[in-house]
Design a protein that fits this description.
The complex is a heterodimer of chains A (about 230) and B (about 100). Chain A is α+β, with helices and mostly antiparallel strands. Chain A has four helices and eight strands, in the order αββαββββββαα. The relative contact order of chain A is 0.20. Mean pLDDT of chain A is about 60; it is low at about 1-30, about 40-60, about 65-100, about 190-210 and about 220-230. Chain B is about 0% helix and about 65% strand. Chain B has no helices and nine strands. In chain B, strands 1, 2, 3, 4, 5, 6, 7, 8 and 9 form a nine-stranded antiparallel beta sheet that branches. Classes of the chains: A alpha+beta (about 230), B mainly beta (about 100). Strand 1 of chain A pairs antiparallel with strand 1 of chain B, so a sheet runs across the interface.
Chain lengths: ~230, ~100
Amino acid sequence: MSSAIRLPNEITRTRAAAHGRRAGQDSAIRYSLAITAGASRLPPLAHGRPPGNDETVCGVAGVGIRGARTHFRGAPRPFPLRAGRGTGEPSRPRAGGRRRLQGNATNEANNPLTAKITVNLQDYYTPSFYGPLNSDANSLLLRGLIPMNVGGLPQLLRFTLPYSVNPSPEGYADGLGDFTVFDLFMLTSRLGLCSSRRPRPTASPAPDAGRLARRARESRPCHEASSAAS
Amino acid sequence: MTYQHSFADSFNREPTSLLTVQPIVFYNLPQGFYLRSSGIWNFDFENNLGYIPVGLGAGKVMQMGRVTVNAFIEPQYTVYKYGDQVPHWQVFAGLNFQF
């Protein structure tokens, strides 16, 4: 019987997604330091300047502080870092580039490093757990991203505020979870931590045009070719 | 990849030592649709528990005026775990607004 009472608490301790609540616990404060690192194939700062055609592999590092005065003591859902597919092209419409534009817009929308003000309303529903506990749980997350430029250094401020419903000995417990704030520093090429790759091969008329020009030069009379070379 | 460690617990909250890794794959489809997988691996050193979910979901990016709306849903199944009382199934859904 004691294990039956303890089970929900173990969930609240261990289930990082759920921001669990200990039964009978009043407000508590916890501060924790989180460090994060990741990489993306997408340019991190597409806002304000077109990134060009290069694929860019960029790193990101961040420091976050989680402080909460809530009913919950479970670990907050971690900061997301996502690497997506991308061509690094500007997002402006281009003639004949409709499909690529769509792909780029999708990449930009999915890239958490896109430096645009972002508001996310997300939800993790857990219909079942491993183990003997027969219950479900839910976490609603309000997330946001605010790009900043402090002292010439571009940074991304991310925050997450969860509202969770978790199993408890009394049935369910609900309330706000730990508020999480991350400040992400971009590791740009200026710091030598960001490498550019050659542009991805694209289907363009350029090779054909070059071949045609070469053929035209080869078919020209010798004196024209020599004058052209000089 | 994120590592979180508590440094200023109040006495009635237990310490935290949590490593999470989130590999994410997107595959773009025409007309703003895309496939996604973004399960977050959790390794809780404080309680000696961990689980690795694998997700497969879909989403769509829509432009509404100056706002880019991104809607998605992604079921996730835990393929590896140690310890009990970790999620078996999860459904991750979201509505993102990019201004």
